[in-house]
Amino acid sequence: MSYVEERIMELSNAENRRSQIYKLFNVLQQYNVTALKIDGRRIKVAENHWVNDFASCNYLGLDLDPEMQMDVKEQIIKWGVHPSWCRLVASPYIYQEAEERLADLIGVESTLIFPTVTLISIGVLPALVGKSGVLFLDKSGHETMYEAAKIARDNGAKLESFKQDDFKSLEALLIKHNDNNRKVILVDGVYSMSGDFVSLKNLIKLAKKYEALVYIDDAHGFGIVGQEPTADVPLGFKGNGIVKYHGLDYENIIYVGGCSKAYSSLAAFVGCSYKMRSFLQGFATPYDLSGPCPTASLATLLKGLEINEKRGGSYRSQLWELTQMALNGLRNLGFTVLNNTGFPIVYVVIGDNADLITTANILFRQGILVTVSPYPMVSIGQEGHRITLTAANTKSEVQQLLAAFAEVRNYLCEVGRFGIEMKSEISSVDIY
């Protein structure tokens, strides 16, 4: 065995979060799946085996919308397949066009596009707090914010954490650091495991009281939740994000939207003022140290924004109907399902890693692809399957999903572990 292989074995056997996840690769059929062919939301994964896809986050189904392919060739002919510069040096006009359209949709002065939300976090958060500021991290927030916060902490900033919606603890932390003039609270807009919405009005009130910025990772919410929700349209209109859903402005908010989910395009953006945009261009290192978005992704983003204006509401209505069908069916089967909002993230609690592995493989054999969430991705007792629905799924596919979970229930009943009381909330492992 070579030196490198020995070090790999040593690291893979270490007792840490990533090594424990790595050990599941060989026992979970739902991991590292190769799609040999796709037919709508059906995926061919072996010569004689297809699965229905409930693991993608292409919520509006735009990845399968024929119109999304229009204009891509024209833009590639105009700009080449990939911009030749980092953004600090130069950007093709298609960037400016997309940024202006995004700013208009969410209602901000300006936006700044990066390739991914992860790159935004690792560039923007250290820039905002510098060497002396403090970050307040929601423990249920996406782990990429924690990774970015560690970079800021290594540069000298302080890192505190609080549980989701625990405003009493958050206020105590804000009081503790009241004299610090660089305070940033980090939250998800829509939580990526449960589909919960951030309690933004309470959070903003607290942030203003202690003069803190609020950084919102709305990777999942952008494109789905939007302004002026009603009883008939619970997720709101236009899909212009969680801030508009709550009817708020962006006075002390750094809003981050992802386009790789609802808009099926490799791009993400910061919604901010012109002054903040200029600051980030100078201080967020991925602006000059990462590659740009491919031309095709910028073209599909522009086309997606156009489609959203024409029929986004119809897609969101389909999505709501399919999600309600899945939620009602799973709850009627007796499962503990974490979803208080009707957002198309449906988390089914299994509550044990061994059972989770077995039930994941049952689902796969029954033709269902989901996102499997074992410990240590989530806390012990919260292990489960995350189902994500899209407007491109069908009622027939949801019926097949429910039939597969009926088989899961049969297994859990046989081993005497169905109906055990589960935790009613989910959070990341306490690693902060």
State the gist of this model.
The chain has 432 residues and is an alpha/beta fold.
Task: Give an account of the 3D structure.
The protein has 14 helices and 15 strands. A 7-stranded mixed sheet has the order 4-10-9-8-7-5-6, sandwiched between helices. Helix 9 (242-245) links the parallel strand 8 (213-218) and strand 9. It is globular and about 60 Å long. By secondary structure, the protein is of the alpha/beta class. It has 2 domains: 22-63 and 312-414, Aspartate Aminotransferase, domain 1 (Alpha-Beta Complex); 85-293, Aspartate Aminotransferase, domain 2. Mean pLDDT is 92; it is low at 427-432. Helix 12 (295-332) crosses helix 14 (395-414).
Supply database-style keywords.
4-stranded mixed sheet, 432 residues, 2 domains, alpha/beta, Aspartate Aminotransferase, domain 2, disordered C terminus
- What sort of overall outline do the alpha carbons produce when their principal axes are compared? globular
User: Strand-residue fraction?
Assistant: 15-25%
Q: What is the subunit organization of this protein?
A: single chain
Structural class, judged by helices and strands? alpha/beta
- Evaluate the radius of gyration: 22 Å
Number of strands: 15
Low-confidence stretches: 427-432
The number of helical elements comes to 14
The share of residues in helices is 25-40%
CATH homologous superfamily identity of the largest domain: Type I PLP-dependent aspartate aminotransferase-like (Major domain)
